[in-house]
Amino acid sequence: MAVHDSLRLHITSDKFIIEPTKAGANELLVIDRVSQEITLQVNQGQIPAAAITKLIYGVVGIIRLVAGPYLIVMTKREKVGEINGHTIWQLTDTETHSYKRTMLHLTEQQASYNRSYLSMVELILKTDAFYFSNTFDLTHSLQRLQNTSSDFSSLALHERADQRFVWNGHILRELAQQPELGQYCLPMVHGFISINSTSINNKNFDYILISRRCIYRAGTRFYVRGVDTEGQVANFVETEQIVQYDGIRCSFVQTRGSIPLFWSQKPNLKRMPLPVINSAINHMDGFQRHFDDQIYNYGKQVLINLVNQKGYELQMEQAFAQTVVNSQNSNIRYESFDFHKECSKMRWDRLSILTDKLAEERGQFGYFMHGKDGSVLSSQQGVFRTNCMDCLDRTNVVQSLLAKDNLLDQLQRLGILAQGERIPEKCQFDSVFKNVWADNADTLSKQYAGTGALKTDFTRTGKRTTMGLMMDGWNSAIRYFRNNFQDGFRQDAIDLFLGNYQVEETEGLTTASPLTVERDWKFYAIPVIFLVAMAMFVISILLPDEHFSEQVMYVFFWGAASVIALTVMFAFGSEYVDQPKLTQAKTKME
Question: Given this model, what pLDDT does residue 472 score?
């Protein structure tokens, strides 16, 4: 069942009335702003002439804050392309409308809390890369869609969707509870989609890349790591590469996700906080739940671990490897590759060592291929699950290489490339391929770590450059700032939007608000002491004293005071970072 493509929102003092623009759709979705009742009515001319009318492209959902419910609607969209004739859109702007006509029912403190929650919602909605289709299920890979029944295909989009990848599922629930409202429930995915019409050897085809971010254990870089008790891992992303040519579609799926152990890496003002593995928990429970789910969804698994095999990352590699051995699971194979050691001194050609080791499984797993007559010509039997520490930079480089090797097989089988021809020889398409994967890396990195990806110069050009190293340094500095001083708020925004934390209208009145945080005296005093000491240190250097020995004493004293204050700040670093407030369990190591 398709979702209405465009609608008119009529706003009156007591109702939101949503009217499909499609000819013949003689119905209205009516939301009573007072009783909060949602009904589907026959259009009998009940829209008041004085109503404020806006053109919208769908309903994102309804979210409840301190002031009451808010209706979120799509006001702008941008066409990304088409998959099998279905238009794919990117959300570019929204509007949020309160059910309440005024905020007079709130206390001053409640109004402050409500503004904070609204800013969280706006932060999520302004994040790039929300996608939707009114007629196509973006949450499933082509192979999963092919394996469904006709009854499944007749369901509304939100009912048939893979809930792992529906980012507005929580805020759609009030509409989704009524089956007759299926044409108004538009599921959105978050991640990355690129659709490119291109050609090789004068043969036109579509090259498509879709990355679907999972809503379970979603969050920011340092606040969400590892696995939880349900087997869900941080930063889990399913990436599907699709080729459309002459009615034939090929699909190749890969996954990425945090090391599936109970570990944390909390920000504490240090450039790279040390990861901590929780030794008090049985890691095998979360590990097995995770891979039971992965094997059910994707088949056999090759686990590619790209972390360093020395320094602070070594413990993660050893723990992961040992857990795989202890699991005795015949459906998974572990492949460890010390990315930074093997590719040191810009020897990125040595990545072929890894791809050669994976070549046999790549052939065994294959890819999904759907013929123009509807027949299944081949199926994918397993996936490569890749991870580094963040599952961003190193992971994307390796995934792009595996995708290119698989794409070569597909293009030769389709007759687009002749036997013996290689993708790098086709400069125009090779550039498209590299830039799509680099854009994928940047987008996923911004969503998890707050900046564009590192190492994208290799993905874009096929080689490591000095300028690329400089950009990596710049992005690393920005990551440091955002991970320490902005990610607590971002984590809260994600938890609020996904329903991990639900606001009560009595918050700040009869129940306490988690937004109220009492700071220790160190939070205010030590930074002030540091700033004063640093200012005096600089002044002592710049302003000469008639007695040189006194000037040296002042410089030494204020310099020492600055160092001591800074040392104390780093010693209590976790108190100075931006901590999440809404779901405290997110900041605890599970």
Answer: 78
